[in-house]
Amino acid sequence: MRVKQTLRECPVFAGLSDADLERIAGIGVTRDYEAGSTLFAENEAADELFVVLEGKVALQMSVPVNGGPGVKKATVDIARSNDIAGWSALIEPYQQRLTAVCLQKTRALVINGAGLRAFLQGNQLAGYETVRGLARIMSARLDDACRLLVSERSWQP
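Predicted structure:
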C-alpha cells in the first residue's frame, strides 16, 4: 500500500508499528490538488495534518512589507514527498502557523487532526514516537530559520 509506505518513510511516523500505520492511514483520506491550490491558511483552525505523497507544497509566512500595513508571503520551507504540512493539527492551540500552497499537482494523505490526536492519546507508545518525530522536524525547521536570520543580520552594518 503506497500510503502505508509513505507513512513509514515520513519522519513523524517512522517509528510506528505496521498496525499503527494502518490505523493512521484509516483516519486519513487521499486527495489530489492542482498547482496553486491552498491546503490551509495562516491563522485558520488546524483541523487536518497533510502528508505529501507526491508533489511540492510551499510553506509560507506573512511578513510585513517595509514596516507598513502591507504583507507579503515568504516561503520558509517546501514540503515534498514523505513530508508533512500542518503539524499545528497536533499541537495546541490547533491554529495554522503558516499557509500551504501547492507548487505543482500534489497528492496528499489528509489526516483528521482530532481523530489522530484521539488515537495517539489512547496509544502512548505511538503518541511518544509521533511527538518525537514531530520534534525532530520542528527542531530542524527552527535551526534553518535561525541560520537564515543570522546570515541576514550579519550582512547589515
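Summary: Residues 124-154 form the longest helix (31 residues).
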